[in-house]
Every structure is written in C-alpha cells, then in structure tokens.
UniProtKB/TrEMBL annotation:
Protein name as annotated: Uncharacterized protein
Length: 212
C-alpha cells in the first residue's frame, strides 16, 4: 500500500485525545494485516453474542425496532427474547404491527412474554350501581391489543408466559408452537392442480402455434 494512503488511514484512526491504534500496530510495516484477524474474531464471536444473550424489551414496539434494525446476518442468530406485553389500548396500533416481527426470527427458541390479563378499569357508573369501582378491562381476552396478531405467529420452539396469563397462554401457545406454513415440517404447499368444473383434473394440452 502506498505510504501516503497508509499514513492517511492511520492518522484518521487516531482520536484527537491521542488515543487510536496501538503503537505496535502503527509501527508495523503492514498494520492492515491486523484487520483480517479482527474480521475473523467478529465472525466467530458474533453468532455467540446473539445466540446466547436473552434480549429483554419493555414493550413490543422496542422489540420490533431492535429486530428490524438488526442486520439479517446478525438477526438470524437471535435465540432468546423476553418482553412485556402491555394491555393499554393506546399502544394497540404499534403493538399489532410489532408482533409480526417475531415471524422473521428463524432461530428463536424461548420467547418469554410477561402479561397481566387481569387488568381492571375504574368505572364510576358500575360503582354507583353495584358498589364496585373495578371491572375487568377485557372480558374477551382476544380483544387485548395485538393478541389476535400473536395468534398468527407460528414456528416457535418454546413459549413461556409470566404474570397473570392462564387464559392468554391457552389462547396463544398452541398456535405459536405450530410449524410455519411452507416448511418441511409444516403444511404442504398451497399450490393446487388445475381442476375442471366437473371435478376431473384438467390436463394441459399443448396447442399448435397459430399462423397468420
């Protein structure tokens, strides 16, 4: 490498405080020989980092941003995710969209969901009539924001629920553990053979070219 190019790159790597590449590297005849080593270290450690860490998020929205902003080459190694599924209606739109991000995590094994299905609301009219001020927020658990979106998630290997979750677990877990459509262990392809109106399989007949 030309000396001028080498000096330019080395000087650009030095922080104004004086920190930068180690002196042994800067004084080396070919300091750029260290870069392939760094690349090998990254390629070896990156799958371990994403595969062994349990990534925790305080909401489906923050989890979704992390998933979509992580490069696919890294994202494919993510195995553990935990998040809190809030039941507040004001996050309904973000939550529904965010839950679809789980479908692109091919290596996801344990998914941990913290949820409080017994959330209750203060209701003045109920209190005045029955002497109670708290009522169930969701009498139909499927109306909890994004629960219907989670019902469409497939292909997970393990799902764990935490909190007040008995009904939600029964509603979701069975579907989430089913294989994805189109996989070898899942359902067959949706392609169908052509069938005539009388129910007999249609045969493709090659027609001779039309001459004008």
């Amino acid at each position: 490498m030309p000396t001028t190019t080498k000096d330019t790159l080395l000087s650009a790597s030095v922080h104004p405080s004086g920190c930068g590449l180690p002196e042994a590297v800067r004084n080396e005849e070919s300091p750029f020989n260290t870069f392939p080593v760094g690349r090998q270290f990254y390629e070896g450690s990156m799958p371990c980092f994403f595969g062994t860490n349990n990534f925790y998020f305080e909401s489906p929205d923050t989890r979704s941003r992390f998933v979509y902003r992580t490069a696919p080459v890294r994202r494919q190694h993510i195995r553990q995710i935990s998040y809190t599924h809030y039941t507040d209606a004001y996050i309904k739109m973000d939550t529904t969209t965010a839950c679809s991000s789980l479908q692109i995590l091919a290596s996801l094994r344990p998914l941990n969901i913290s949820i409080d299905e017994d959330a209750r609301l203060l209701n003045g009219r109920v209190k005045a009539r029955y002497g109670e001020d708290l009522i169930m927020k969701y009498t139909n658990l499927a109306n909890i924001p994004a629960i219907r979106a989670l019902q469409k998630v497939r292909g997970l290997k393990e799902v764990n629920f935490h909190g007040e979750y008995a009904g939600v677990e029964q509603l979701l877990k069975g579907n989430m553990l089913k294989p994805k459509v189109g996989t070898k262990s899942g359902m067959k392809s949706c392609k169908r053979k052509a069938v005539r109106d009388d129910g007999i399989q249609a045969k493709r007949i090659r027609q001779p070219p039309v001459e004008f």
